[in-house]
Batch of 2 targets.
Target 1
Amino acid sequence: MTARNAYLTTITSLAVRNDATVRLDEVTGPFDAETKRRLADRLAAMDPWHRYGFSSERLVRFLSAPAPDARRLLMIDGERHAGVAVVRTGWLAGSYLNFLAVMPEDQGRGIGEAFLAWLAEEGHRLGERNQFVAASAFNAAALAFYERHGFTPVAELPGLISDEETEILLRRRLA
Ligand SMILES: CC(C)(COP(=O)(O)OP(=O)(O)OC[C@H]1O[C@@H](n2cnc3c(N)ncnc32)[C@H](O)[C@@H]1OP(=O)(O)O)[C@@H](O)C(=O)NCCC(=O)NCCS
């Protein structure tokens, strides 16, 4: 482990399409400020966060939150940050996938699918009965993606993030 990434702990290797693998690392130490800023800048330019007007500063704060029950995970291909996820454990008899983004140039490679498969395994390991995620009603691609991987819409949450939009809460039963 080099000094540059001493704040990361490798959790597993995710097998993605074309016989490739991507590392799944967890942020376990003070998150390197420059890396965090670069990630936040990219996320702020992506929908749905761009559409909601989330600033890079807000995303930096979100990625910095030192909550012990919020696992910050990075998908790393070689030196490149291909994706980021935040998982909150201990939520409604299970966990809540608070954030998932795969960078535009890495989408469609099976990284999201491999991550959700790892998340299910992790849930089984921890004895979780449920896993939850929320996606914006306008984010048809994300809703289809979650539904293809075992999540079912369970509630509509109008105005959760902005007055004009509705979020859809989805649940995956593990038990
Ligand atoms: C939604 C998201 C996390 C999915 O991650 P991903 O790594 O692109 O997902 P995968 O590559 O596993 O699958 C994506 C799609 O590629 C398609 N696909 C299958 N084989 C493929 C191939 N050989 N080449 C390209 N795409 C392929 C799949 O059908 C899948 O479609 P689906 O959305 O209907 O499931 C990602 O697209 C993303 O970050 N989007 C923007 C942010 C966002 O909306 N996040 C969710 C907020 S709740």
Target 2
Amino acid sequence: MKILLIFLISLNFLFNIGCKDDGHSTILLWKHGRIPYTMIGLNPIQAQILLESMFEWQIMTGSSVTFVPKKSGDEKFLTIINDTKNDSTYIEAYSPGLQIMQLNCWSTRRAIRHGLGHVIGLLHEHQRPDRELYIHIEPFSNCSPTAMYQIMVYPDDVYQYDYKKYPYDKQSIMHYKWTDICEHALLNSEGETGSEDISILDAKKVIDMYEDFKEEEKKGIFNNFDEE
Ligand SMILES: [Zn+2]
């Protein structure tokens, strides 16, 4: 079941966050919150925007996650590729030791913050199992299977943290805005959904997810925790 879920979530990249797909969703955690990265094809301005977004996640989470340039010994790392092809909205290149985040929308920092949220391990807030208590999403009859993956409800056991501990967060960077979703479905919600910024609850979830690593570090215990 979990393998199937990873597959479905992996397909969940056709994300219109003001432009085309933004990032990579993962259930795996980065050991000790350390995320080695490399960049391919980024110009200095793009690199600067990306580094600032990485820094925001680090600051917001009290360094529960840290982005560091890849070293030669790093087997698992993030590759950020600048892709300018309009129709190239999807990439699934997760393999042991390699995670690729394809960005073709540098005009919005929201897409980059959101994409990094996926890299860290966060899932879409609007796909929470209890979302119907807060919003209602009704797929159009011609909604494509791929789009359905973006709006389906996740089962409980896919999370790396206890989502029930947190209030439903319409301001999450991981929540679609109405404009992101309306190509595929109707979204009914009181109040606006989606935000430009990482929310406090986004940061708390990351801290929660990576807490065990912090505890291990305090105790001087290190083990392979990331390949669940
Ligand atoms: Zn997304």
